[in-house]
């Protein structure tokens, strides 16, 4: 999966970069039979700036909306 971004602004003092996603492309090999992204096939990573590590994502932590609603009741 590739996100093509356009830089909107960059502050050299704070090193904050603001961008806009202008295109998304994805290889068919990471799609499920229904045409949606299969997160286990994609095997995305995220950067942990505190520990300077790349972390693999993918385990289910809960179900959107349903689990949150149960907590608010």
Overall description:
By secondary structure, the chain is α+β, with helices and mostly antiparallel strands. The protein has one domain (2-72): Roll (Pnp Oxidase, Chain A), CATH 2.30.110. The chain is built from 2 helices and 4 strands, in the order ββαββα. It has helices at 39-42, 66-72; strands spanning 2-11, 16-25, 45-48, 53-56. It has a two-stranded antiparallel sheet. It has a two-stranded antiparallel ribbon with strand order 3-4. A hairpin with a 4-residue loop joins strand 3 and strand 4. It is extended, with a radius of gyration of 17 Å. The termini are far apart. The mean pLDDT is 91.
Notable features of this structure?
73 residues, Pnp Oxidase, Chain A, 4 strands, 15% helix
CATH-scheme architecture: Roll
Number of separate strands: 4
Could you say what the CATH topology is called? Pnp Oxidase, Chain A
Measured distance between first and last alpha carbons: 37 Å
CATH superfamily: Electron Transport, Fmn-binding Protein, Chain A
Q: In order across it, which strands form the biggest sheet?
A: 1-2
What does the largest sheet look like?
2 strands, antiparallel
Number of helices: 2
Spans of at least 5 consecutive residues with low confidence: none
Q: Give the proportion of residues in helices.
A: 10-25%
Which series of helices and strands comes N to C?
EEHEEH
- What structural category characterises the helix and strand content? alpha+beta
**Please, how many domains?**
1
Under CATH at level 1, the class stands as Mainly Beta
Give the overall pLDDT as a whole number.
91
How many whole angstroms does the radius of gyration measure?
17 Å
């Amino acid at each position: 999966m590739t996100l093509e971004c356009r830089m909107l602004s960059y502050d050299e003092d704070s090193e904050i970069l603001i961008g806009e996603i202008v295109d998304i492309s994805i290889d068919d090999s990471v799609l499920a039979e229904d045409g949606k992204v299969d997160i286990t096939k994609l095997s995305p990573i995220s950067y942990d700036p505190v520990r300077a590590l790349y972390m693999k994502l993918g385990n289910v932590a809960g179900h959107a909306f349903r689990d949150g609603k149960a907590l608010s009741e």
